[in-house]
Write a structure and sequence with these properties.
Layout: H1 13-23, H2 36-55, E1 66-68, E2 74-78, E3 81-85, E4 92-97, H3 102-108, E5 115-118, E6 143-146, H4 154-159, E7 164-166, H5 174-181, E8 186-187, H6 200-210, H7 214-234, E9 242-249, E10 252-256, H8 261-268, E11 272-273, H9 275-278, E12 286-289, E13 301-307, H10 311-316, H11 318-322, H12 324-327, E14 331-333, H13 339-346, H14 352-367
Protein name: Iron-siderophore ABC transporter substrate-binding protein
Family: Belongs to the bacterial solute-binding protein 8 family.
Keywords: Signal, Transport
């Protein structure tokens, strides 16, 4: 199932900072007690899908964090123009992965980055990627760059002497790109892409092209799309039902819309955005929802998760608790450190099967109740 996804503009530094924070939902460790069994079973049932998603692309890794460069040179188009990735002098490609889920995509293609920007706070224990992807590093110990929100340690990156820097789901900042390009060829998001708004399939193909693995990227995208399509076909009752992907952070509430991978996955499963959400002013891939507008969450079903709260605190929020979609048991609540929630936010070829297997059955139980 392939649905067109609009590229949404997001203006201003404040908007970019907000985008990074809102993307960080489900990273960290709040409260997984209510759904840890769900994440465990989903991870288990997704193992075959995740394995299949990279079986055709797993032969390029050479160990030591470098990858064979047989498919290079390559040229890719980005928002900052064409970027050329030459054949490394030693024949092995050293990759630094800075963009959201860039490292997981590289791993799915059999390439082990020497450094990973840890957007979701998985930590050195998991080598900066989701636990579903950690083992793909093998014995390689990448440098894990902590998420500082608004800055990069350029000196630390330069010391790694990369041949390629992946920054394909990022803020798309010109100054950052200029500085990174002084270190190595840097692949940024495609043209006309919102901050952190690169769709997972576009991102996967862009990373594959940059690695000289274009055919493997096409195969990988097709396999993940098949996983989503199979879930949608198995649940025709999703079609035409309204849904909301919502969160609470600080004293604010909001819903994700087209351009955010979490909503895009629900749309690909067949759900339609709740009209009251679309009636509110959007900020990129996100719609702020005031206390007075909280009933915009009252769709046929909702998937909700906290940012900076425990799940218990979110469920106890009087406004959340007052919603018909909550009182009627039509909400899937995801705790921040539940593996399904983390996979939902990561939106990589390795995590999407876990998110589908974890969320689709819960939504099916609601819709068919």
């Amino acid at each position: 199932m392939k649905l067109p996804r609009p590229r949404l503009a997001m203006a201003g530094i404040a908007g970019v900072a907000a985008a990074a924070m809102l993307l960080s939902a489900c990273g960290g460790s709040d409260d997984a007690a209510s759904s840890s069994s769900t994440s465990s079973s989903a991870a288990s049932s997704s193992a075959a899908s995740s394995s299949a998603a990279s079986s055709s692309a797993g032969s390029s890794s050479t160990g030591g964090g470098a990858a064979a460069a047989g498919g290079l040179p390559a040229t890719v188009d980005t928002m900052f123009g064409q970027v050329e990735i030459p054949v490394p002098a030693d024949g092995e490609l050293t990759v630094v992965a800075l963009g959201w889920s860039d490292a997981e995509i590289a791993l799915a293609l059999g390439v082990q980055p020497v450094a990973v920007y840890d957007w979701q706070g998985f930590g050195e224990e998991h080598k900066g990627v989701g636990p579903w992807a950690t083992e793909r590093f093998g014995d390689v110990e990448p440098t894990v760059l902590a998420n500082t929100g608004d800055s990069l340690d350029y000196e630390a990156i330069q010391v790694l002497d990369p041949d390629l820097i992946l920054n394909t789901r990022s803020a798309g900042d010109q100054a950052q790109y200029d500085r990174l390009s002084q270190i190595a060829p840097t692949v940024s998001p495609p043209a006309d892409t919102a901050a952190f708004g690169t769709a997972w399939d576009v991102q996967t193909q862009l990373v594959a092209d940059a690695l000289g693995l274009s055919a493997d990227g096409e195969t990988l995208v097709g396999q993940v799309e098949e996983t989503i399509t199979e879930a949608a076909d198995a649940n025709p009752q999703f079609a035409g039902k309204t849904a909301v992907s919502g969160t609470k952070f600080g004293d604010a509430y909001g819903a994700y819309i087209a351009g955010d991978a979490r909503w895009d996955l629900l749309a690909d499963l067949g759900f339609e955005q709740n009209p009251p959400v679309l009636a509110l002013p959007a900020q990129g891939f996100y719609v702020p929802v005031s206390a007075e507008q909280i009933t915009a969450f009252d769709a046929d079903v909702a998937v909700m998760f906290p940012i900076g709260y425990t799940l218990a605190e979110m469920e106890a929020d009087p406004l959340i608790a007052s919603l018909a979609v909550v009182k009627d048991g039509r909400t899937v609540f995801l705790a921040a450190d539940d593996q399904v929630a983390q996979a939902f936010s990561a939106a990589s070829p390795l995590s999407i099967p876990i998110a589908v297997d974890g969320i689709a059955p819960q939504l099916a139980a609601i819709v068919t109740a």
